[in-house]
Amino acid sequence: MSQSTIHHIPVCPFSQRLEILLALKGQHGAVRFSVVDITKPRDPALLAKTRGVTALPVLERPDGRLIRESLVILQYLEDIFPEPRIAQRDPYRRAVENMLVRLEGDFATAGYVMVMNQDPARRDALREVMLKHYARLDAFLQEHAPAGTFLFETFGWAEAVFTPLFMRFWFLEYYEAFHLPDEPGFARVRGWRDACLAHPAAQQVTREEIVKLYYDYAKGAGNGALPPGRSRSSFVFEPHWSARPWPPRDKYATSATDAELGL
Ligand code: GAZ
Fold first, then answer.
1. Contact present, 216 and 226 (Cβ < 8 Å)
2. Among 7, 50, 56, which residue has the most ligand 1 atoms within 8 Å of its CB, making it the best to mutate?
3. Is residue 63 classed exposed, middle or buried when 0-12, 13-18 and 19+ CB atoms within 10 A define those classes?
4. How high is the pLDDT of residue 13?
5. Measured between alpha carbons, how far is 30 from 53 in angstroms, rounded to an integer?
6. How many angstroms is it from 69 CA to the middle of ligand 1?
7. Which pLDDT value is given to residue 219?
8. For residue range 118-135, what is the model confidence (pLDDT) as tens digits?
């Protein structure tokens, strides 16, 4: 069988979902990953294939047909590599899993809005929104999986969807001093998050990488855009993130230069 290709931004949470699913299946080598540098103009050949749509990841089948949207690609990979099955087989359990997955969009948006906020007066309100989403996840897990760690017996579909977001939200700890409160109302979701973060199939990125690469988001500039006064994006591949200093935490008071960021 010819290989499919996933065009992706390596640090993007949506593409990490696919990498986690393939890792769980032991099938990472079965798909070719083609890296896209979002700090550069998009390859015209890829843009032609996607008919101008720039959002990634996109899976390109051997016959040239495209599939986009990470959750759709996730299901496609589950269907073409059926063993081991990661999605729940029992219809009710699958529905529970899907209900949890339906919470991912608003959760992701809340975290990204918070990290990109530049107005100190909005911080408390955005923190409350974030806590509301964690409380909702906690309540869901209390209802459907009060005793365990994961939603079901092992790290599965819902975990593959949420873990990349939990990892990106390391940027909230660093740039917003946002931590899950050590309170009973968050204990269940905290246990879930911590077990997700530690799982061996989900180690494609590190906290240091996320904190350094997402500096520009913390300054309000997303998707490879440049904050004022800067000429190099924090998402550039060179110099490699591991060779750069940790950025300043205080995003409201400080605007680091390219040089201060090691760019
Ligand atoms: N729903 C799609 C999926 O595949 O699940 C989302 C794909 C997507 O947004 N990809 C982004 C992309 O390719 C990278 S990840 N951008 C390049 C381009 O040219 O479009 C998330 C946010 C947000 C800002 C950024 C992101 C993010 O809110 O992670 O909220 C969830 C982008 C301001």
1. yes
2. 56
3. exposed
4. 98
5. 25
6. 10
7. 98
8. 999 999 999 999 999 999
Task: Please check the confidence at residue 2 and state whether its pLDDT lies above 90.
Answer: no
- Cα separation, 188 vs 196, whole angstroms: 12
- Residues with Cβ within 8 Å of 182's Cβ and at least 6 positions away in sequence, in order, are none
Q: Which of 14, 75, 76, 103 for mutating ligand 1's site (highest number of atoms within 8 Å of CB)?
A: 14
Q: Write out the DSSP string of 117-134.
A: ---GGGHHHHHHHHHHHH
User: From the CB of 55, is ligand 1 less than 6 Å away?
Assistant: yes
Average pLDDT over residues 4-9: 97
147 residue type, one letter: A
Verdict on whether the full-model pTM lies above 0.85: yes
Return all residues near 50 (Cβ < 8 A) that are at least 6 apart: 58, 66, 68
72 lines ligand 1 (CB under 6 A): no
- Rounded Cα distance between 98 and 101, Å, is 5
The one-letter amino acid at 43: D
State both tokens at 47: 């843009």
Identify any residues that bridge with 59 across adjacent strands, giving them in sequence order.
6, 67
C-alpha pair distances (Å), 215 with each of 69, 110, 254? 25, 17, 11
**Which DSSP string do the residues of 20-33 spell out, in sequence order?**
HHHHHHT-GGGEEE
Give every strand in the sheet of 66-68, ordered side by side.
31-35, 4-8, 58-60, 66-68
